[in-house]
Amino acid sequence: MLKEARIRSVIYTRVSSVKQVENESLDLQLRECKNFIASKNGEVVQIFEDAGESAKTTDRPGLLKMLEF
């Protein structure tokens, strides 16, 4: 029997304020992403994060690392 291929996925989470970091918004995003990927029989291969970074610019360390990945 052939094994079903797992979809390899990366997760990127971001919040723009320290208050959101303190309120565990990143943890919630990560948990929701992991649950979604698991529901699709996916595999998380890397997690990227930007805490306290505005979405007004694409010059965000975590985003840039993800794009290089």
Automatic annotation (TrEMBL):
<dbReference type="InterPro" id="IPR036162">
    <property type="entry name" value="Resolvase-like_N_sf"/>
</dbReference>
<dbReference type="GO" id="GO:0003677">
    <property type="term" value="F:DNA binding"/>
</dbReference>
<dbReference type="Pfam" id="PF00239">
    <property type="entry name" value="Resolvase"/>
</dbReference>
<dbReference type="GO" id="GO:0000150">
    <property type="term" value="F:DNA strand exchange activity"/>
</dbReference>
<dbReference type="InterPro" id="IPR006119">
    <property type="entry name" value="Resolv_N"/>
</dbReference>
<dbReference type="InterPro" id="IPR050639">
    <property type="entry name" value="SSR_resolvase"/>
</dbReference>
<protein>
    <recommendedName>
        <fullName>Resolvase/invertase-type recombinase catalytic domain-containing protein</fullName>
    </recommendedName>
</protein>
<feature type="domain" description="Resolvase/invertase-type recombinase catalytic">
    <location>
        <begin position="8"/>
        <end position="69"/>
    </location>
</feature>
